[in-house]
Write a structure and sequence with these properties.
Length: 143
């Protein structure tokens, strides 16, 4: 029967190679690294197979969680990406909603300043989005 060290080394190599050919956001890679650590521990003297499997599972979980936390780029807080200009289709009365044309679609919109009304066919800046309503400011105010 082959030693546990050899089995863990093979498992680690297979998992790391699987990540190379079938990317899974470093999950397989972290499981492979954990298998290499358990192979080292089994070589040093950790002989109980169930303890090795437990260490591998715990170490894999910790490494996957840490890799997600530190390797993923931070999310953008704004869901509105690059295009920030829109044009009003209808008047936006003070404190009420109207319609704007944004990225080729008609959106419900409200002025960020509740005391300000926006005329139709006027260019506006999209400040943020609240659900399906765009919060806008007139272009001439922000210049």
């Amino acid at each position: 029967m082959p030693s546990y060290t050899l089995i863990w080394l093979l498992a680690g190599a297979v998992l790391c190679l699987m990540e190379l050919f079938l990317p899974s956001a470093f999950v397989e890679f972290m499981m492979g690294i954990s298998a290499f650590v358990v192979a080292l521990l089994s070589l040093v003297g950790l002989v109980n197979l169930w303890l090795q499997v437990t260490v591998w599972l715990l170490l894999s979980t910790v490494l996957v969680v840490l890799s997600r936390r530190f390797l993923q780029p931070p999310r953008r807080k704004s869901k509105i990406q690059d295009a920030i200009l829109a044009e009003t289709l209808t008047e936006i009365p003070a404190g009420q909603t109207g319609r704007v044309l944004y990225e080729g679609n008609s959106w419900r919109a409200q002025c960020d300043d509740e005391k300000l009304s926006v005329a139709p066919n006027q260019r506006v800046y999209v400040v943020r989005r609240e659900g399906t309503t765009l919060i806008v400011m007139p272009e001439n105010i922000l210049r």
